[in-house]
Design goal:
Blueprint: H1 3-14, E1 18-20, E2 32-34, H2 36-55, E3 60-63, H3 72-76, H4 79-82, E4 84-89, E5 96-98, H5 99-112, H6 116-130, H7 135-146, E6 162-165, E7 168-171, E8 181-184, H8 189-194, H9 196-203, E9 209-218, E10 233-243, H10 248-265, E11 273-277, E12 287-295, E13 298-309, H11 311-320, E14 326-328, E15 333-335, E16 338-345, H12 346-357, E17 358-363, E18 366-371, E19 382-386, H13 393-405, E20 410-412, H14 418-428, E21 432-436, H15 438-443, E22 445-450, E23 456-460, H16 464-474
Parallel strand pairs: 3-9, 19-20, 19-21
Antiparallel strand pairs: 1-2, 4-5, 4-6, 7-8, 9-10, 10-16, 11-12, 12-13, 13-16, 14-15, 17-18, 21-22, 22-23
Helix pairs in contact: 2-12, 5-6, 5-7, 6-7
Length: 479
């Protein structure tokens, strides 16, 4: 990992954003828990996504489907037969890698070395390999011809490339078919597709309309690393938008624009975001783009926008025997809708926000670590301090805290010097610190300190809430 990512991992544990799962037992690889600050950050992101997707669109409905589904669901979706990653083992270190990622990293390394012509040639061959009938063999030949070495051991001693299914299996009591193997869902989308008719009939929506869901998914990743970027248990925020066949490209472009804007509205700088078109489309898609963010580990996907055609509904119709057709009251025709999907990784969004917000600055000769979150996603919106623990200041500060708590999450702190309290809040990403001091007793004003500019202004207690709201709305990302 890069130095910046190491610092974010350290800060995340130190301040209670993210912990290694089951840490007292040595931890569980690529599984993480969200601490007190992390869960607030996570809930704020979820709320902003739900607001943007469901509340701001009168033709999008919400859903919360079960994690466990009938196993035929995953046969119909293609996951049983096609949800595989190409795996290769380093015989020296016994570590496993994704063959496609080894080649992608090799191409990126060639470009960094100025060997663009060579990189272009390998990239063309890589795209051909992804579409080859025997993809594992084609990828293996590239690794051999390019003499790509194992990242950890440096050895050039590989096994053959083979396909590895990413779904977790578990057991359930006897099913009607007599087969008790089921799967932890590898994506949330199928819960939407199997409920398409239920939502359509109960919501009285008409095409075009969407179904949105936030939920857990599970993948037995070959290489799960880089903190919460790639995990085995993760959370997705997905919306499936059902359209008339032939209208999918118009909807696809519209949702591309909306989804990019959502990330910008969360305080992400435009220079750190870009579009990436898929070299190889999934079996269900006729168009696909990723929104990528420039992480410390390089440009990586945070969200996918896909035109899924009618693959999912048509397959579920075939496997279930239930008609998935929509009757269009305007044209008097029946058809299986096409689908445009937006799918963003919640955990990757959290990591992106941490990377985007992290700063190390010198303030009056001292170093400070600060998280410059957008105030709307910050775990704690404001901290309230009494300057000293006497003269009625704690009582006034507690009253302000209680008043603000009716609107958003705040924190009260009276321990340590005022400078140390500021630094604690800077690390937590708190945008405003409110100090009750001697002047408060005289004129009813408090000092409000801005996290980013360090500006301090006097604000009347009875104007404090509207002042904070105004400052939050006027906030813009720091350079």
């Amino acid at each position: 990992m890069s130095d910046l990512l190491d610092k974010i991992v350290s800060l995340s544990k130190r301040r209670g954003f993210i912990f290694q799962s089951s840490e007292i037992y040595g931890g569980l690889g690529a599984v993480y828990d969200y601490g007190p600050l992390g869960v607030e950050l996570k809930r704020n992101v979820q709320a902003r996504w739900w607001q943007a997707m469901v509340y701001q669109h009168d033709n999008i409905e919400g859903l919360d489907a079960a994690i466990l589904m009938h196993p035929t669901t995953w046969k119909a979706s293609g996951h049983v037969d096609a949800f595989n990653d190409p795996m290769i083992d380093d015989r020296q270190s016994k570590k496993r890698y994704r063959a496609d990622q080894l080649i992608e990293e090799h191409i990126a390394r060639l470009r960094r070395q100025g060997q663009d012509e060579h990189a272009d040639a390998v990239h063309r061959r890589f795209v051909e390999a992804l579409h080859a009938d025997d993809m594992p063999r084609a990828l293996y030949e590239i690794i051999m011809d390019e003499q790509i070495r194992a990242p950890d051991s440096g050895a050039f001693d590989w096994t053959e490339v083979r396909q590895f299914n990413l779904m977790f299996e578990t057991q359930l009591g006897a099913l009607a078919e007599g087969n008790n193997t089921i799967y932890l869902r590898p994506e949330t989308a199928q819960g939407i597709f199997v409920n398409f008719l239920n939502v359509l009939n109960t919501s009285r929506q008409q095409i075009p309309f969407g179904i949105a869901q936030i939920g857990k998914a599970f993948r037995n990743e070959i290489v799960a690393r880089q903190f919460i970027f790639r995990m085995r248990e993760f959370e997705q925020m997905e919306m499936q938008y059902f359209v008339r066949p032939g209208d999918q490209m118009e909807a696809y472009e519209a949702w591309r624009e909306k989804r990019m804007q959502w990330h910008l509205d969360n305080g992400i700088r435009p220079s750190r975001l870009r579009w990436h078109r898929h070299d190889k489309l999934a079996h269900y898609a006729d168009a696909a783009h990723d929104i990528q963010y420039e992480f410390p580990i390089g440009w990586q996907e945070i969200e996918g926008i896909h035109s899924r055609t009618d693959f999912d509904l048509r397959n579920h119709q075939a496997y279930s025997g239930k008609k998935m057709e929509y009757f269009d009251p305007q044209t008097r025709e029946r058809y299986i809708p096409y689908v445009v999907e937006t799918s963003v990784g919640l955990d990757r969004t959290i990591l992106m926000l941490l990377c985007e917000a992290y700063r190390e600055e010198e303030v009056e000769g001292d170093q400070r670590v600060v998280l410059k979150f957008h105030p709307q996603v910050a775990p704690i919106k404001a901290a309230v301090f009494p300057l000293v623990r006497k003269d009625g200041m704690p009582e006034i500060a507690r009253a302000i805290e209680a008043d603000l708590r009716t609107v958003f999450n705040v924190m009260y702190d009276e321990k340590g010097s005022i400078g140390k309290r500021y630094r604690r809040m800077d690390e937590a990403g708190t945008p405003f610190c409110i100090t009750v001091d001697g002047d408060t007793l005289a004129d009813g004003t408090v000092t409000v300190r801005d996290r980013d500019s360090l500006e301090q202004v006097r604000v009347s207690q009875d104007r404090l809430l509207p002042y904070l709201h105004d400052r939050m709305r006027a906030w813009t990302p720091a350079d």
